[in-house]
Amino acid sequence: MAVFNIDEVIIFSDDKETEFAQGNSQLVNILKYLECPQYLRKDLFPIHRDLKYAGVLNPTDMPHHLRAYEECAYREGIVLDKKSEKGASIASIGLKKDCELDKTDLEVGLRVTVKITSESKKVIKGKVVTPSTPREDLGLYWGYSVRFAPTLTSVFTKSPYKGGYDLTLGTSERGQNVDKVESLPKFKHLLVVFGGVKGLEAAIEIDPELEHLKDPEPLFDVYLNTCPNQGSRTIRTEEAILVSLAALRPKIWKS
User: Fold this and answer.
1) Looking at the domain assignment, is residue 28 inside a domain?
2) What pLDDT was estimated at residue 23?
3) What CATH number is given to the structural domain containing 79?
């Protein structure tokens, strides 16, 4: 997802079995772990069985995964259990010196995005900003958020964006050939939905609010086959994501 500058990853269930629910929970934890800068992981992620083998996963190496020697106007940090002489909150931001923040009442252990405002031999000072600020200010991709949606309906209704997603795109081998689509409608927040091995139909079957539907297509503004003329009977979701986003990328940039 990081390769394509994705802002939000949503995991939803298409099966009622408990084992699948546990798998979804594990995937959420792994995705959150991979998004987090390495220097914050020990503080933000206690030892957990879901992350037992996370260390062998390939790093996402996003712009906010800064090394100590790298300079950037922004850094991710964690609020420490101490205060400055003036009573300001202090955060660790992956440098040898901690950062004095412009807030006084931040919760210990809170992850924050910090804009460095000044630095001297004795102290680094910073301002707490929203996670979207580095992208808005400098065009830096600053990672993704992760949420779990118990049903397909909640993927749409629980959007963190005001007004929700203004363009929704479903993927299916029964959709329109992506090669015949020159561009997508204008949008601010695009939602691209992938089904599992059984397709989006499986998610509809277990969703009580979608019992009246037989076909997922009416749920979406655009319904595309992003891998036409496929040579295999099925495409795994992790494969479909890369194939689809690569095919959609030039059409998204045209929008």
Assistant:
1) yes
2) 86
3) 2.40.50.140
Written as one letter, the residue type at 132 is: S
**20/145 same-domain check:** yes
Question: In terms of domains, do 121 and 149 share one?
Answer: no
pLDDT given for residue 14 in this prediction: 87
Which CATH number fits the domain that encloses residue 51?
A: 3.40.1280.10
**Boundaries of domain holding 96:** 74-137
Binned average pLDDT, 10 residues per bin, the chain of 255 residues: 94 77 89 97 94 92 96 97 96 97 97 96 95 97 96 95 96 95 94 93 93 93 94 90 96 85
Is the pTM value of this prediction over 0.70?
yes
